[in-house]
Write a structure and sequence with these properties.
Blueprint (H helix, E strand, L loop, with lengths): L1 E5 L2 E4 L4 E8 L6 E8 L6 E6 L6 E3 L7 E6 L4 E6 L8 E9 L12 E2 L3 E6 L1
Parallel strand pairs: 2-11
Antiparallel strand pairs: 1-3, 3-8, 4-5, 4-9, 5-6, 7-8, 9-10, 9-11
Length: 123
């Protein structure tokens, strides 16, 4: 699976961005898809995840109520809608894929990673 994230950019606090991750390859609908972010000098942290069917999702406490992940298995895409953005959301965001059944929030459980996309939120 090859992943490519897009949709990053710069926005003012309170604004919105939508990240998309396109997957190539087979069996997209068998992978749990995760979103992670990395602040400068810090470890990668989990933001959200969706089960293969998209029927269950996870959102980190820091983004719950503001961010929503969803997937379209027919189009091999997963999205992260980010609303009410805050300056502390500034980071490089990554999408990742893993075989269903492992912990969703641990980066090392993910088998495939896309290149990151920069999100900058100005105050």
């Amino acid at each position: 699976v090859q992943l490519q994230a897009s949709g990053g950019g710069e926005v003012q606090a309170g604004g919105s961005l939508r990240l998309s991750c396109a997957a190539s390859g087979r069996a997209f609908n068998t992978y749990t898809m995760g979103w992670f972010r990395q602040h400068p000098g810090k470890e990668r942290e989990s933001v959200a995840a969706a089960t293969p069917s998209g029927g269950s999702t996870y959102h980190a406490t820091s983004v719950k109520g503001r961010f929503t992940t969803s997937r379209d298995n027919a189009k091999n895409t997963v999205s992260l809608q980010m609303n009410s953005l805050k300056p502390e959301d500034t980071a490089v965001y990554f999408c990742a894929a893993q075989t269903y059944g492992r912990g969703w929030t641990t980066p090392s459980n993910y088998d495939y990673w896309g290149k990151g996309t920069q999100v900058t939120v100005s105050s």
